[in-house]
Write the structure tokens for this entry.
Amino acid sequence: MRIEPAVEADLAAIVAILNETAANSTANFDTRPIGVADRRRWFGQFAPTGPYRLLVARRGGEFLGYAASQRYRDHEAFRETVEVSIALDAGGRGRGVGSALYRALFDSLAGEPVHVALAGIAMPNDASVALHRKFGFTEVGTFREYAVKNGEYLSSLWMQRIWD
């Protein structure tokens, strides 16, 4: 498996994963398919250095998933806080891809001005909670029934990791 910074050509595969997840689960809150053009601005926030990274995993010609660290909020007070996310192709789940992506992402953030990483996890999602715990995240609270998708109220568990 190869993990490297994403390039714009990866957007189609990222969008495919997000659309598959949106259509078949509540792991993301998208309620309609998105297109590559919808994700270009999002993609533009990432760089190969600094606190805002987007890494992708590939095996041969197969795109397995991505992990990202992005600005938490557009406010100076949160300059050392990132929000992390991860999304895997169905074929990459349960095969160590998520662990490899997060390991590479967190290693790349060493020495960057990051004090806290946050993750919001749509519930239930035992696999994602376990992955975040594995990398030192702890639970900080739950937003209960704060989103609606397909007529169902959804909750999110928020977790954080503090760098020393």
